[in-house]
Specification:
The complex is a heterodimer of chains A (250) and B (305). Chain A is of the alpha/beta class and 250 residues long. Helix content of chain A is 37%, strand content 24%. Chain B folds into 2 domains: 66 residues; 221 residues, MetI-like fold. The chains are: A alpha/beta (250), B mainly alpha (305). Chains A and B meet through helix 2, strand 6 and helix 3 of A and helix 8 and helix 9 of B. Chain A: It is found in: Cell membrane.
Chain lengths: 250, 305
Amino acid sequence: MSDAPVLRMESVRKTFGDSVVLRDVDLEVAPHTVTALIGASGSGKSTLLRCANLLEEIDDGAIWLDDEEITDPRVDQDAVRRRIGVVFQAYNLFPHMTVLDNITLAPRRVHGVSREEAEARARELLERLGLGEKADAYPDRLSGGQQQRVAIARALAVRPRLLLFDEITAALDPELVGEVLTVVRDLKDDGMTMVLATHEMGFARDVADQVCFLDSGVVLERGTAEQVFGDPQQERTQRFLRRIVEAGRL
Amino acid sequence: MTLVKDDSGRGSADDEGDMPGRDDTYVPSQRRLDRERHKRVRARRATAIAALSTLVTAAVLYVVVVSAPGWQRTKETFFDAHYAREAFPKVLEGLWLNVRLLLIVGALVLVLGMLIAIARTLRGPVFFPLRVLAAAYTDFFRGLPLIINLMIVIFGVPALRLQGVTVDPVLLGGTALTLTYSAYVAEVFRAGIESVHPSQRAAARSLGLTNRQALRHVILPQAVRRQVPPLLNDLVSLQKDTGLVSIGGAIDAVRASDIIAQRSLNYTPYIVAGLVFVALTIPMTRFTDWVTARMDRRRAQGGAL
């Protein structure tokens, strides 16, 4: 039972108008593993994550979270989302709330946790992420890296079963990327199950148990990091990785 | 100019260790001093030009008005000290009605406007009739001239002779004002709701908040904050329009001046009433400006708000 995948996708298809964004996508994410989705912009990585969290409705196929089919229309979508944490590229913190209120909103309003308990947990998370003294600050007073770490704390506050990271370092200045990636590494050590869409190839190679290369909405190649980065089979994967190396990103 | 002042004032602050300290050996360069002297000269010249041009404009206006052929007559009819003294207390008495109307109608308008705006943004098939009703309501009452709305309600409702329904022109006039203004305010709120970026809703929903919780805790607080300036603007406008309930015979500031004017055939009371309204509105418009400026400053500091 413990080996049953946390997230499973089968033949998922998603279109926006005439363009097919995801085509027959299969994916399995085992517990306590990290899956990295790589591929060019527009290859469908972000859409895949949004579908997994039901922020987008899929056209065909099915998605399971812990053996429950979450794409069944009878499923309570809010209940599903409570079990999945998402961190966005643009942080999406709530600008009218302090850091502490950002983090305690969902535990208090959705999970019915008392204010004291929620705040205690939030402070503990902030402390762990090196933001202990920022609890009462507003998001616009924080650097990008700090904001993104708050966003991670906000996602963690509801103790999710699965974390989805959507290009979480793409909007950050290079010197701030490290502090966010360190957090992700720590989460992996804690055994958190994560799926991350990323352009940080070096990081994906280090941290991912499974790497999927998406190309035009298809998972063209998948395997361990050594397989995909070390010995790519597909011509398109090779070309993509070559471009990354030429750009000095790997 | 201010730069210079700041610096001279800061010299002493430096000694107290108020500043990061390292600056205390800093001596402004000749270049900076020249630049600041030039700015000072320019600022002084600008002030002088502004003062002169104001004076000239005032003088021209004065001469034009006073030398007008009908000035003597106008002065007697519109600016008579005797009638002004007579009208002032009566107008103030009437103004109390305007103020009460503003407070009560203003509160109702904010609540009703918010409800209509929310109704218009509700999703889901169950809410279809509510959405349509809300849309029809705003379309109708934003299009209907206020004065016609007032006449229909103030004269039309009593004509129905319904049991238990008031014929009080103040209550009816207040109702008409509420109907029209909540349509305006609903649109202001709706614009605010729609101006909140969809990613905020996505973030809220991804945390497991229901649509309603997302609206209440994430969308509405941001929407309302952004719309404070236009809302205050509508309230200023409402403040003046409370004077229109006088068409039903209620004695507000406008009607009070009207009574005296009709009797004396002197229009000074109208001027008094007008000035009283302006005096009442100015604090509110200044307050609006202040709030707007404060929010712009916040935004300029790089906040997403």
